[in-house]
Amino acid sequence: MEMSDSTDTWRDRLSDYLDEALEDSERSELEEHLEGCEECRETLVELRQVVARAGSLVDAPPARDLWPGIAYRIRETEEGGRRGRSFAFSVPQLAAAAVTLVALSSGIAWQIAGGFSARQAEPAVPVAQAPAQTGLLLASRIASHDYESAIAQIEHVLDVGRERLDTATVRKVEEKLALIDRAIDEARQALSADPSNAYLNRYLAGTMRRKLDLLRRTAALTEL
Amino acid sequence: MNATILAAALSTLMSVPQETDTLIAVPGDVRITVEQVAGDVTVTTWSQNQVRVLADHGSGDTIELELDGNELSISAHSNTGMAIVDFELTVPVSAALEISAPFADVRITGTQGNVSVQTVEGDIHVEGGRGQVDLQAVDGDVMVFGSEATVQAASVDGDVMLSDVSGDVEAQTVDGDVILKDASSDNVQAATVDGDILWDGDIRDSGRYSFVTHDGDIIVGVQPGANAKVSVASFDADFEIDFEASLEPGEQESRRFSFVLGSGSARMELESFDGSIHLTRRGHLSEE
Prior knowledge:
heterodimer, A: mainly alpha, B: 14-stranded mixed beta sheet, 0% helix, elongated
């Protein structure tokens, strides 16, 4: 079932809807549209999940080496005069945001930070000390950057711990990572041709998450 | 209580094969951790509150058992290099097991406690299990049979096979198949990148089933009378269904569609980026 133009139009307004930023008449129209559009309902559920995950971040300590970048972005945002709880995800951003939040909230970054602790000059700063509105804002602004950052950090942990793993194991993991990278590339190519395809967005997010998970598990193996 | 037993501490220049057989009394709710580098680990259960440790090892290896409260740790050490030890453990049926064995095949039979196993190179085979069963391998197959536990089973290069399981399941691999046979779980998530997913189980009312592969096929056996809303999505996959279902004309062309079986109580999501998706009747899967 192809999505109609009206679906595209309304889906782009879903984040505003969640943010209660729509006019009353628009909100009513959107709610009416939601009743008959499963695609938009599913996207709304996914957005709400991202919101929920973002909310859960307050209890998790951040990766110390991520904090300077996060703090910089918070300052940048505040200096820009932006106030209040507001966010704006496009559907393509959702993929990276969801993956990043999964990575952060599942403690991956924190586990990794333990490996870096001896080299870090900055003290750990609890997220709770960050402005309350930053969860979603950060998610939307740093999602892509932090996904790459999380990947880079775990890869660094692997480089450090590589000597503790059998060379055949390292080779095998690298082969399988290449397999996932190929899947990610194929999903990205498909998405570039059809950016509004909810399945492809979700699929790309899932595949990126699988790469993070594989890296995380492999990094953990260096401790066995 | 803190007791350490050095079951074998012979140090000789020659590494002579040696067997150590030790029996230790433990609480019924004992949590057993096993750490060894290489060799095989076989675990069976009995009704006694005792752990028997039978170890085949070199004479330069030391088997260490340490009991602290309800925590029993079993480890192997070597003064001549890597300890290569085959463990045969007999443990209380409700014991919780945590096994880290980078280069080992691990086989556990009959346990009713939580199980956690990590291997780098080796297969993991678990029969039974209640509570939580968490199995991870890098280069090896992961197999679970007859378990009521919540199962998390993951491999990187290997198949994940689960049979006769009834708890929630999360099964994933990168390069391998995920096979779920005679399953009666309410929640199942199965994913692979380069491999097939086969489901031959009961789709339960209100259940949630998600099968995702990138470059493989999804084959689903559906029992008569199943109630599920099935959502199919793909980028370039073929879809085939062997029985009557009310697909609207033209829907398949979009490669994203759904249809309802019976009351549609359960939710099943089938996603193959570049493979095929095939729904057939249970019992017709032997040829697949």
